[in-house]
Amino acid sequence: VLYGLCMLIGIQFDLVYCLLFGALISPTDPIAVLAIVKKLDAPKRISTQIEGESLFNDGFGLVIFVTLFTIAFGSEAPTVGSVTLLFIQEAIGGIVYGFLLGLVFHYLISATDDHSMELLLTIGVPTAGYAFAEYIHVSGPLAMVVSGIMIGNWTRFIGFSKESEDHLDHFWELV
């Protein structure tokens, strides 16, 4: 719409800049979504689905932004193949890496019963995992969402004792 309006009034610029701006402003804010869901006192299942959708939306918005940024400001002329490859690397790579990171986290948590070590793992694995995702040029946000889903739906119920789960819940509620 912005591109069309600018063209009508005689302002000329590339469509990719409008798309880049759209990718920048389009993802929902997960923090705002959490606040609204809590304010509305939505059922837990609905709340979890909405929060997850918001996080995936945020992750894919960043992937689209990175792809468009590379098109707009990259040193080489973009081709359909290079843009497709970049998108696949960021999106699919982030999802696959997040799955693998979730497996590693599950293995590490299952190998210890020390509450302090479990707490450190819940801080260290996502932090180091995100940094490594950026290093290997896959989407860190998507990787963290996927690994978080795995941890929340698999490791939380299989890898943690009830006592460990209580300690972790208290810590993360405080944070």
TrEMBL record:
Protein keywords: Antiport, Cell membrane, Ion transport, Membrane, Sodium, Sodium transport, Transmembrane, Transmembrane helix, Transport
InterPro entries (UniProt xref): Cation/H_exchanger_CPA1 (IPR018422), Cation/H_exchanger_TM (IPR006153)
Any GO BP annotation: sodium ion import across plasma membrane
Membrane topology recorded in Swiss-Prot or TrEMBL: Multi-pass membrane protein
The keyword ATP-binding is annotated on this UniProt entry: no
Entry keyword Membrane: yes
GO CC list: plasma membrane
Superkingdom of origin organism: Bacteria
Family: Belongs to the monovalent cation:proton antiporter 1 (CPA1) transporter (TC 2.A.36) family.
Name of the protein in question: Sodium:proton antiporter
Lineage: Bacteria, Pseudomonadati, Pseudomonadota, Gammaproteobacteria, Vibrionales
